[in-house]
Specification:
217 residues; mainly beta; SH3 type barrels; 3 domains; 6-stranded antiparallel beta sheet
């Protein structure tokens, strides 16, 4: 039994969907929209001690911090169907293991689910050496005989070389630059690491995105 009080926003942002359903107990606070408690457009309060069973999470909107030189930061809410294409600014914070990447980043055989990373030091593997700062792509997560690993590939002189990394592989792994453009919906579904903010550019203006998740009882 976990006993740690936090806001519902913070809880849902850090929650791994694979751990659902989860039961939480209300300590205090108000609920504003999106459930049976939102009646006739009025704000309702949960009762202290009330239990909620969370069975699913979906992102309903994004909060964006718009930043430009010589002006204050402006915060706006964006719906997922907001028009336009966005380019990702690579996250400068490292991941400290392959497991951390797998836990926070969506990995899939589909094109949008194949992030690229690099390491500031050589990676000595049975298949060979991945050179320092050489970018490699994570293409799939596999589990065989209870042992999980990620399948990876690296391009060298127009040739594709594949290798595997165990989830326990330590090190510092940095997100590589991404020159592709994405819609907000694609960013939410594929490119928002759990618990991290995502900086993107749109019409040359940087903005930081924070997903807002709605929970269902």
């Amino acid at each position: 039994l976990e006993r740690m009080a936090m806001s519902l926003d913070k809880f849902t942002c850090s929650l791994d969907a694979k751990t659902l359903p989860r039961v939480v107990q209300i300590q205090s606070g108000y609920y504003f929209q999106g459930s049976v408690y939102d009646l006739f457009g009025r704000e309702w309060s949960f009762s202290n001690g009330e239990l909620l069973k969370i069975i699913g999470i979906s992102v309903t909107r994004l909060t964006a911090e718009l930043q430009s030189e010589g002006s204050k930061t402006t915060t706006v809410d964006l719906s997922l169907d907001y028009p336009g294409l966005f380019r990702i600014v690579a996250d400068k914070r490292p991941y400290t293991s392959i497991r951390e990447i797998v836990d926070l980043v969506r990995i899939s055989p589909e094109r949008l689910g194949q992030p690229e990373f690099c390491s500031p030091i050589d990676l000595q593997l049975t298949e060979g050496t991945i050179q320092a700062m050489e970018s490699f792509r994570l293409t799939a997560l596999r589990t065989e005989h209870g042992d999980s690993h990620v399948e990876c590939e690296v391009m060298r002189k127009d040739s594709r070389h594949t290798f595997t990394l165990k989830l326990s592989q330590p090190g510092e792994f940095y997100e590589c630059d991404d020159d592709q453009f994405y819609t907000l919906k694609e960013l939410v579904e594929w490119k928002m690491p759990k618990g991290r903010r995502r900086t993107v550019t749109w019409l040359c203006f940087p903005m930081k995105l924070v997903s807002k998740a709605q929970t269902y009882k």
